[in-house]
Amino acid sequence: MTVKKNKMGDNLWFLLGCVVQFSLGVYPTLLVYVQGAPFFLPTWSILLIGAIAAILVVVSVVTKKSGFKQCFSIIGIFHKPLKQQLQFYTYVFSWIGGNAANIYALKYTTHPEWVQGVMLLVPFFVPILTKITDRKHKIPKVWILSVTFIVATLGSVMVIYGGHTNDQEKDKYAWLTILLSVYSTFSAAVFFVFTARMSRIFKLKPSSMLIGIKLFFIPVCTIMTLALREDWNTYRSLNIKGLMAFLGICVGTHCFARILQLTVIGKVGAPKYSIVQSLRLIANLIFNYIILGKPPNGWIVYVGAALIIVSVTFFLSMRIYLKYKELISMWDPENFFDYPLYFSSTFDESSGNIIIKTIGKKTSNDVYKPLLSKSSIDDKGSTNVMDGKKFKYDTKVSSDDHSGSEDNKNVENEIKNENENKQ
Length: 423
What we know:
Organism: Anaeramoeba flamelloides
Largest sheet: 3 strands, antiparallel
Region (Disordered): 394-423
Strand content: under 5%
Keywords: Membrane, Transmembrane, Transmembrane helix
Oligomer: single chain
Transmembrane segments: 12-33, 39-62, 142-161, 173-196, 208-228, 240-261, 273-293, 299-322
Distance between the termini: 28 Å
Protein name: Inner membrane transporter
Structural class: mainly alpha
């Protein structure tokens, strides 16, 4: 059975992912614009309106695709043990705190590129936090992580130093902005590390997780905007440009960009999509000049931005390459390039097969029969080649494409008979 890969479709989705990343880079600039003179829009009200708009769009999309019941499957967490509930609450409120820190960092600065430059350090924090929380996790080529992290951090420092001015009135909250940006970056890394774990624990789809977070986020924003007595009359001061910027935040970013991001990740995979996240900094520098009228302040900002972009892109590309290189010996080279690059593999002890799970494809669960025995799988889950032989592609079963079909039943029977004969 052969697989035909729609390369044109994948390329179009990847191009759309580039557009999404670029649009997300405009978000910090828009927040600086609407929170500063002459509008001074209240911070928590912006978050509240954005969250309401986002949940309405997500619920409508999920309802159309999976039914209304699926939207609020997050309610099932209240039937989980208290320990698991506390894990979820910690996860949600770390995300809420990170978002609040991000928007406040942009409130007390006229340099959105500072915040964006620091936020691009998230990909480096993710493997570090994963290693801290899971001792069994291995970071391939630690020296690549170390070198690129140092270079990217140096780039962030250069962007901040180059944008700093001697005007104490404008930069009096510089350290507050930097500290809030670092906290927001750390919070985002925690969010990415624990999203997959929370999804497994509660058996929820990413869209349901997003709805659950927003359901907690809306009451928090409401309480904060009332407690701080934010003045909603400031929205009356919006002119056409201000209104377009506000809609760009609430509708463009919170609704369409975030939802398109989930869709693109489902189509091309998170690793490939993440490669181009440096486009956010490029977009930020461009729109700082267009919207705020502030070009980069000197050559040091350009050099710092270049260091961030190159180091982040190189690090993410190498992570994919190393995973690609690690598993290439497990596949038949003649068929390897017919399959998506982004996948995870598990060993099914009951059948003795390697289960290859691709991301965002109709054929998401493919079963491969290896030329290895169970004894060749060590306790850590790694594989050893026996007698110099490689994994050989034999056939596959798709869980999404009529799992009860005759072809799949024949494959399952064949695997079962082969295992019985071995015993």
